[in-house]
Design goal:
There is one protein chain. The chain is of the alpha+beta class and 520 residues long. It has 3 domains: 183 residues, no CATH class; 131 residues, no CATH class; 162 residues. Helix content is 54%, strand content 13%. Strands 4, 5, 6, 7, 8, 9, 10 and 11 form an 8-stranded antiparallel sheet that branches. It has a 3-stranded antiparallel sheet with strand order 1-2-3, covered by helices on one side. Strand 8 and strand 9 form a beta hairpin. Helix 1 packs across helix 4. The radius of gyration is 27 Å and the shape is flat. The N and C termini lie far apart (65 Å). The model has no long low-confidence stretch (mean pLDDT 90).
Length: 520
């Protein structure tokens, strides 16, 4: 065990023996509540832990609990000078965190569920220890947010940014290259800025480090802001340079040698280099004096506005009872909402479309959207007199939730672990979500996605989640449909043109989907 960790453990043991009876009772209550929360929401914590361990984007999170303990240990000598008191407005914070979990539970949005369980742990602190203690722990409580595995939503954006940096550097180095979305064609071969090369895992880890360093190493808010800006810009630019370096090396040594070297460098070794560069650059600007308490306990103790807030204290027993009521109500509401299921038709069929005829589905590279948990799925191909072809995929769900998420990760037009890769945003189709896909580096396809729930017709997963949340909060059972129109580029015209002509032939898309799925 490192010396600092041993010192921290010894200090905590010694401090525990010297605690006042008020602190001992308050910590016992807080520990018991945390144990109950971890038990009740064990499935959510287990899902997060699997993400921390199995997904490289979130591997750094395994260090966050130790960092949180260290942050509390830094403040512990000063915190003991405060008196813990249960504070009833903390119940509003706890109820808000529980409601956030509820929204995630009834919509299938894991991010909201996980943010909710983390927030409940944090909200229990002001509820059971009081507003002054919470003021002393405000940074560690805020730092809890880094336990939530979030950030993969930035992958496509970072892919595009990395590709733009890479092509600019490639041209500056004198290498002829053509960019198409996230694909860069050079004399040595075709290169893809894949999801794994987007740099998202380094950006997320650097932001977590930057926030920690800004608090621990700086006092000036300007220097803190500069540190955070550096922790965003440096990993993005460095990742673009790394991608360019691979392409440049491939022109000299060949693709296999360059790719092999990139696989060795690209990992936490690369992150360590970037981290070292940021630390070296920031070192001379550190302005927090050593051996100075991390919090000003006297200012916390004498603060008039904290005094006014502390006047809203409540007995610990009442706080615990209120907390239990919130938990029971939240779990009961979630259970009732999860049992909602809309009635389903016995079967659905692809309809006749004026000017188009059903033909055999025979794509050059097999493409089949994923819709796990849907009660009905259909995939077929239409062709018009000019030879244009459009593929139609429809999925119908009786409910949305765990394992039944129309817009969930890995669902929809891009098939995971398939010959298809995301290339770039596709041409605009109103409210639909348009993507360009590339199969085996040769076949281009456009896929446009719409979701239908009640009167909602949108390609936005966020808007679908909001509609599902509203349904479940009102205990309203309504089906959800996913429609994907897709086409490959052909001599008869581009994929976008084929989809636009098909889209014009269906008439208003919402009613057309309703008739096809038989829900209205």
């Amino acid at each position: 065990m490192p010396l600092e960790m041993r010192a921290m453990a010894s200090s905590l043991v010694a401090a525990g023996r010297a605690l006042s009876p008020a602190w001992q009772a308050a910590l016992v209550r807080l520990g018991a509540v945390w144990a109950v929360l971890l038990a009740i929401f064990a499935s959510d914590w287990a899902a997060m832990a699997r993400q921390w361990w199995d997904i490289s984007t979130y591997n750094h999170i395994v260090l966050i609990p130790a960092i949180l303990a260290w942050l509390v240990w830094q403040r512990w000598p000063e915190l003991q000078k405060l008196e813990p008191k249960a504070w009833w407005p903390g119940l509003a914070l706890f109820a808000g965190a529980a409601f956030l979990w509820l929204l995630g539970a009834i919509s299938g949005l894991d991010l909201a569920r996980q943010a909710g369980v983390v927030a409940m742990l944090g909200a229990a602190v002001p509820l059971l220890l009081g507003v002054r203690v919470a003021a002393g722990l405000v940074f560690p409580l805020a730092y809890l947010v880094f336990l939530v595995p979030v950030g993969e939503e930035l992958i496509n954006v970072l892919q595009m940014i990395t590709a733009e940096i890479t092509i600019a550097l490639t041209h500056l180095s004198g290498i002829p290259a053509v960019i198409d979305g996230v694909f860069i064609d050079t004399p040595a071969g075709l290169f893809e800025v894949a999801e794994a090369c987007s740099g998202v895992k380094f950006l997320i880890a650097m932001v977590a480090f930057g926030v920690l360093a800004a608090n621990v190493c700086f006092v000036s808010w300007r220097r803190r802001a500069a540190m955070l800006v550096a922790c965003v810009i440096v990993p993005i630019v460095a990742n673009g340079i790394r991608a360019w370096g691979t392409i440049y090396a491939a022109q000299i040594f060949g693709v296999e040698v360059a790719a092999g070297f990139d696989h060795i460098v690209y990992g936490w070794f690369f992150f360590a280099i970037v981290l070292a560069l940021v630390i070296v650059g920031a070192w001379r600007f550190f302005d927090r004096p050593t051996n100075v308490p991390m919090i000003d306990v006297e200012a916390i103790r004498t603060s008039p506005w904290l005094g006014r807030l502390e006047a809203k204290s409540v007995s610990a027993g009442k706080a615990l009872v209120a907390l239990a009521v919130v938990l029971i109500a939240t779990r009961s509401w979630a259970f009732a909402a999860e049992t909602l299921e809309a009635p389903m038709p016995s079967h659905i069929d692809l309809p006749q479309v004026p000017g188009w005829t059903r033909v055999d589905y025979s794509p050059r590279i097999w493409w089949e959207p994923r819709a796990e948990g849907a009660e009905h799925r259909l995939l077929g191909r239409y062709q018009d007199e000019a030879g244009r072809q459009v593929d139609v995929f429809i999925a119908l769900y009786s409910r949305q939730g765990e394992g039944h998420e129309a817009g969930g990760f890995g669902q929809g037009a891009l098939m995971p672990e398939s010959p298809w890769s995301w290339q770039s945003p596709g041409p605009a189709f109103g409210a639909g979500k348009s993507d360009r896909l590339l199969g085996n580096g040769t076949v281009e396809r456009v896929a446009v996605t719409w979701y239908r729930n009640g009167d909602l017709l949108s390609g936005s997963n966020a808007r679908l989640k909001l509609a599902v949340i509203a349904d479940h909060l009102l205990f309203r059972a309504r089906p959800t449909a996913t429609l994907i129109l897709s086409a490959e580029d052909m001599p008869q015209g581009t994929a976008g043109q084929a989809i636009a002509r098909f889209r014009a032939s269906t008439g208003p898309l919402g009613p057309w989907m309703d008739r096809m799925t038989g829900v209205r």
